[in-house]
Amino acid sequence: MTTMTTIKVPVDLRDRIAELARNRHETMSEAVAHALDAADEEQFWAEARATMGVDTARAELQRESERLSATLTDELEPEDWSDIL
What we know:
Elements: H1 11-24, H2 28-52, H3 55-69
Helix pairs in contact: 1-2
Protein name: Ribbon-helix-helix protein, CopG family
Organism: Glycomyces buryatensis
Region (Disordered): 65-85
């Protein structure tokens, strides 16, 4: 069983959580958990976009890809990934 606790939030925030939960047919706890999950995912993708947009990070990924591709012995023709990396 999950251990429970109480947090203090302003009444208007409690009401927003309750409305969200009601609209989604879930508990207030589930509504908060889903909102936090969505925020975590949004932050992950924002950081991924920021990292991938940096030329040095992109060049580093290209070098790492080239280094690792030399270890492949699958006898397949080399592939051009320059449009992705």
